[in-house]
Every structure is written in C-alpha cells, then in structure tokens.
Amino acid sequence: MTVLVLGSGGREHALALACSRDPQVGQVHVAPGNPGTASFAVNHDVSPTDLPAVVDLARSIEADLVVVGPEAPLVAGVADALRAAGIPCFGPSAAAARLEGSKAFAKQVMADAGVPTAASCVCTELDQVAKVLDDFGAPHVVKDDGLAGGKGVVVTEDRGQALAHAQHCLEVGHRVVVEEFLDGPEVSLFAICDGERALPMQPAQDFKRVGNDGTGPNTGGMGAYTPLPWAPHDLVDQVSQQIIMPTLAQMQAQGTPFIGLLYAGLALTSTGPKVVEFNVRFGDPETEPLLSLLESPLASIMLAAAQADLSTIDGLRFRPEYAVGVVLASQGYPSAPITGRPITGLTSQDADVLHAGTRLDGDQLVASGGRVLVVLGHGETLAGARQEAYQNLSEIQLDGGFHRDDIAAAAAEQEALAGLASGNSSHETPRHATATPEEPSYRNNPSTN
Ligand code: AMP
Ligand code: GLY
Predict the structure, then answer these.
(1) Coil, strand or helix at 413
(2) Which residue ranges does the record annotate as region Disordered (predicted)?
(3) 181 in ligand 1 pocket by Cβ < 6 Å?
C-alpha cells in the first residue's frame, strides 16, 4: 500500500512513522513533510490546502490512502476532492469537518444527539453576550464560532476581557458561543471512525499552558502522556457510549457521516465526562506518544475506515507501557518565536524525536517554528517514561530553546504515592486512582487559547 500523509508537524511525522511500521505499507509520502519525515519517507513540496495539487500528487504516486493531519484542509474540502477522484481518504468531508470548523454547529449536533457538554448560547449581539455571561457567571468561556487558528477561546474570571473577546469576534462578522465553565481534569480521547463504527484509542492528556504548573499563555500544547493512570477504568466505554456513538449516529442521520479521527476534548466533571470541544483530526502533541505505543497496523485500519468498513477490526492494541512527550519550543513561543537557530545533538533517524517545526538550512537542521521537536520517553512506569523523555531532551541543543519540566509530573507523583501505599514495587502502576488535574491552577486562570 502507498500512503500519502498531508501536513508538516510532529503529528504528521508520528502518523507517517506509524504507517511505515504497518506491514501492508510499501511507501510513505508526505506533503510537505519535514526533515524528520524525509529520513524514511518521500516529501513533496505541495500545500495540503491546494486541493487540485493534492489530488494530482495522490494520483501521480498512485496513493491507496491519503491521511489528512491538520484541520484547515479538511474544512476546505480536501477529503471531498480526493473522494471525488476515487482516492480513499482518512478524514471527514467539509460538511462533517464543521464539527471543528464551527463551534455552533458542534453544539447543535451535541444537543440533537444528547451528548453531555457545557450549556451554551450562540450570540450575535454584544448585549446578548453580556446577559448570558451574567446568567452563567464566572469563570467566563467565550468562543469564536469559526476556526481561529487556536486563538478563538477565552476562559477568564474577568468579565471585561470576556466581553472584549466577544466584541472582537462580532466585529469580524463571526458569531460568538458563550458557555458554562466546565470544571475537572481535561482528557483527550481519539476514535477512528468509519461513519458508523468507532475504534477508540486509550486516553491521553496534553499540557496547554506554556509554563510549569500551568502558568502563562495557552499554546498548541507543550507535552502529553498516555495512558492516564488516574482515569476511571470505564472511561473509554463511557465516552464511547455517551459521546462518540451518539455523535456518529447523529452525523449519519443528518447526511454528513463522519469518517476520520474524532477527537473528543473532555472535562471529567463531578457529573461525568462532558465535551469541551470536538476536533476532526489527530491532536498534537497527544498523537506522538499515543502512536508510539500503537501495535495495531495503523494504515490498514485507516484504510478500512476510509472505505467505511471497520467491521472486521476488533480494536486497537497498545503496548502496555507509558509514553511521555515533551515539546522543545523556540525562545519567544507562543507570542513571537525566534526561528532559524541551529538544532544540534539529534540524529534524524531517532524515532523518539518527532520534528514539529524544523527545516534544513544547507546541511544544518534549524528551528522553523514555535514548537520545534516533540521528544518521547517510554517506561513501565510514568516516572520511568518521564525520566527517559527528559534524558533524551537533554541531549539536544537549541539556543534559547525551552521546555516544561512538569509534563506528567503530578500523575507520576500520584503513581509513586499509590505504589508506596500498596507496598508495590515500581513495576506496578495504579491505574484507577482518583482523578487529579495535572494543572491545578490552569482551569481557574484567565486563558486565551
Ligand atoms: P476549545 O478550542 O473549544 O478546545 O477550547 C480551548 C481550551 O479552552 C480547552 O482545551 C479548555 O481548556 C478551555 N475550555 C474550552 N471550553 C471550556 C469550558 N466550557 N469550560 C472550561 N474550559 C473550557
Ligand atoms: N492538543 C490539542 C489539539 O491538537 O488541538
């Protein structure tokens, strides 16, 4: 099988690597890819949002499957263009990608499907926003209805800041979704969907704030780990039954079946898991640790989903270990990352180092974005996986580069305490401890995503 992956970040590096491990896969191509993917796949200088160019490329390499990494090409209709050309695509149609592209659309689907989520109101006037903010009370959650490149959501105690964000959205002609604040630790749960059936992955958690202990501005994500030792043991079943399956059924009933990766961003509230957001693609950086543990043949499974038939696939198998991913970011990230600086100390073949924002300047690898690398570690315990990730990271140099020190730290601490309490050696990990937010200060801080 020949697979074409669209995108250029760490997520796409991880997707291409996982596809290359599938025994059914002969060749992996990536457009545009990065120096990391160039070490084992063929990169093509084609933009994922240039739909005719993507179709031409897929035809010319005789791709059996196209896997779409980022949301923008999906919202722009790349899956429709490929399917119209008879090329199987793992990714939703533009109509189904509205689950991420429009918060108001996602809210309507959830309401129609009876999926638990924050109470919300779609507003078109500032007066209406003000009234709903007061009805819900602080902390305030104000969302731009459209795709806003990660800048669309403000969570804040400050009513003035909430109103200012709403006014900005309204001024550019967007609707505003005001939501009730959901309290509880956040979990990312991904499901591979064929329009009707879903194969859920194990849960992961990412760390959105730039600084240790959940301080500073929001980012695309500074690290992630999986599995979550503290998550309820029936979380995946519960989310499948209450959230994923009803959403798929609703999407199918309204004539926009969802084929691709459904990303449920959840808050584990005192009254159960509730949806904070849906995304229509793999999350970044959760995908990097997740796929590093995946034993099932990813490309074959995504092809089955793209062909609307997951019926023969029993489930997804993950290596029974922990994986931790830590992001190395450029100085100045997220507001003004300094790019172009050399990165040294890594070998391009290292499967534990995913390239998120790199390029070659002659022979020299340099940073080309805010998030530069995602460095992984694995272990039988979270503490072991953390130690390996940070050890791997310490071997890499980027002038001014920085990372968070506390990725998976709270959960590893809890693991150690539970081990002590039960007299376990470090080989046993508590899997069903009480849920603890990794970033206790995060959820009550003003936040701009
Ligand atoms: P979104 O783009 O909808 O994922 O929101 C970005 C981030 O804002 C989420 O990952 C949450 O951390 C936070 N957030 C969004 N909606 C809510 C909510 N209703 N309650 C609390 N936090 C939220
Ligand atoms: N890790 C968050 C996202 O991919 O949206």
Answers:
(1) helix
(2) 418-449
(3) yes
Output the residue whose Cα is nearest ligand 2's atom 2.
Answer: 283
- Find the 371 Cα to ligand 1 centroid distance in Å: 21
Domains of the chain plus CATH, in order, are 2-93 (3.40.50.20), 120-179 (3.30.1490.20)
Q: Is 182 a pocket residue for ligand 1 (Cβ < 6 Å)?
A: yes
- How far away, in angstroms, is 440 Cα from ligand 2 center? 19
* Whether the predicted pLDDT of 425 surpasses 90: no
Mutation choice for ligand 2 from 99, 188, 225, CB with most ligand atoms inside 8 A: 188
Atom of ligand 1 nearest to the CA of 182: 20
**Token pair belonging to 243:** 């959230």
Tell me what the pLDDT averaged over the chain comes to: 92
pLDDT value at position 443?
41
Cβ atoms 273, 238 nearer than 8 A: yes
| Residue 316 identity | L
Contact (CB, 8 A) for 214 and 194: no
Q: Quick one: pLDDT band at residue 415, thresholds 50, 70, 90?
A: confident
Q: How far apart are CA 370 and CA 367, in angstroms?
A: 8
Could you tell me the pTM of the whole model?
0.93
Helix (H) or strand (E) holding 401: none
Residues 430, 432, 435: CA angle, nearest 5 degrees: 110
Between residues 195 and 148, which one has the greater pLDDT? 195
Task: Evaluate if residue 78 carries a pLDDT over 50.
Answer: yes
